[in-house]
Request: fold
Amino acid sequence: MLLVGGRALYWPREQALLVADLHLEKASFFARGGQMLPPYDSRETLERLAAAVRETGARRIFALGDNFHDSAGPARLEPHAAGMLAALTRALDWVWITGNHDPHIGAEAGGICVAELETGGFVLRHMARPGTTQPEISGHFHPRLVIHARERRIARPCAVRSESRLILPAFGALTGGMNAADPEILSALQPADAVDALVPARQRLVRYPLWRKAA
Reply:
């Protein structure tokens, strides 16, 4: 599997692109409460996704939950973004996996919708399930590697992995992040012997140790 653009995972055997936490229509959600944000987050996220599809040649999309910032998100898509999403879901074999923000996704979003999916030897779900040893790919935590160097704080989206499980970074344009070394993330991947952050850097994938099992 290949980490594409630092945020998506390409699975060549399945010709599938995996993304997590798009949070489409997050800006419009906050606007309803009076917090006005630029209303173009869905366009930017979908343009980023379309670029990843072109780069990889993916034929399938697995979107791993919190695809919309809330279950009413599909109905709020402005015409341009709605047209972009419709074109993508028509062109690709598209599976929405529901998350805590979007437990219900209506038919207007296109594709098919499931709570979780087992395929190719992996379970695809929104949130890592502590205690499982089955190979798993998930999202939810928006992990970011945080490094302090030369009096600077550097934070980058990253994937987090144990021996057989992987948490993807948030793909959406309007998403924050949690320190990849946060105990909540480390706990979600137990049992494990080691947990690492994975960050693309200059066409390489750099591994940063986050946690090791005591000897």
In short: The longest strand covers residues 204-212. The chain has a mean pLDDT of 93. The domain at 2-212 is CATH 3.60.21 (Purple Acid Phosphatase; chain A, domain 2).
